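Q: Mind making up any chain with structure tokens?
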Amino acid sequence: MEFLLGNPYSTPVGHCIERATDGSLQNEDWTLNMEICDIINETEDGPKDAIRAVKKRLNGNRNYREVMLTLTVLETGVKNCGHRFHALITSRDFVDGVLVKIISPKNNPPTIVQDKVLALIQVR
């Protein structure tokens, strides 16, 4: 049913997440990552919109550069966002439906991706 909600990158936080997780970036854009946290914390739909954009970027993505940048955005949110965001990323739906799928043996992700996902799961 999520397809009925439109493009997750069309929201302000979604657009920032799309830019912050672009595989052509050489390094993390920490200014943009913190701007994402500000939007999540300061807007009503920020947490929900951010999760939709993160899910879209992570689900089925074999570009592990983009996956790592997205996991860094997620980690930044864990450390800098409030309860509304935490509640969404600690839900069984998100952990099992997104994070665990990334490290599934059928996807065969690089060790660095596996380590980052496992670290995020442990933090929750």
